[in-house]
Design brief:
210 residues, elongated, Porin
């Protein structure tokens, strides 16, 4: 491995650690200001476009942390993992193990509509980040693997229900557009939809009651 490759690998490897440390530091400042929310979710991914011709619906799970800047606005970080198997159109041999997966570490902004007296809160969000994508093919005669960190954008809509002043149940639908290398993955992008359900908890008086 060349010196430049080692340095690039160290930079990519440090991104999740730095974001995790940021998550640990946010609750202190959030408690003093608008509050802090952490959540976890799981669901499905649905590849679209020509990317969806080869890859089938798969699973997705992850979590997030948000700092409430003001009553309707929040900023946060996301960590997600997703995996897809080949579609029927891919004509993959029965003895082959083929998968496409990604680990996403990103940031987002969120705007929530606060209806007076209602526990239901629809929201919009958008952001971007780093997607560590991997394509793997294993069979008795051939083993190949392509792995690279790529940039991607996302946007979505969701609905949050306040079960209590702190506990929230959420339903969300997102669109992700990952910019991949056609020479390495056969596609210049890997777009997909994500549909998830989850649970979140708000810390701080303002976060729990706004």
């Amino acid at each position: 491995m060349m010196k430049g490759d080692v340095m690039a690998f160290r930079i990519r490897s440090s991104v999740p650690c730095l974001l995790f440390l940021g998550l640990l530091a946010l609750p202190v400042s959030a408690h003093a200001a608008g509050g802090f929310v952490v959540g976890a979710h799981g669901g499905v991914t649905v590849p679209s476009g020509s990317f969806g011709d080869f890859w089938d619906t798969g699973f997705l799970f992850g979590g997030y942390g948000e700092y409430l800047v003001s009553e309707p606005f929040a900023i946060g970080v996301d960590i997600n993992y997703a995996e897809n198997n080949p579609s029927d159109q891919a004509a993959v041999p029965d003895d082959a193990d083929v998968k496409f997966s990604y680990l996403n570490v990103g940031a987002h902004g969120k705007w929530t509509y606060l209806a007076m007296g209602s526990p239901l809160r629809p929201y919009l969000l958008g952001g971007g980040g780093l997607y560590s994508v991997k394509s793997k093919y294993e069979s008795p005669t051939l083993n190949t693997e392509e792995s690279k960190s790529e940039f991607g954008l996302m946007g979505g809509i969701g609905l949050s229900w306040l079960a209590t002043t702190s506990l929230r149940l959420e339903l969300e639908a997102d669109y992700h557009h990952v910019f991949t290398s056609e020479s390495e993955f056969g596609e210049s992008s890997a777009p997909f939809f994500g549909v998830t359900g989850g649970i979140a908890y708000a810390f701080g008086k303002s976060a729990a009651t706004e």
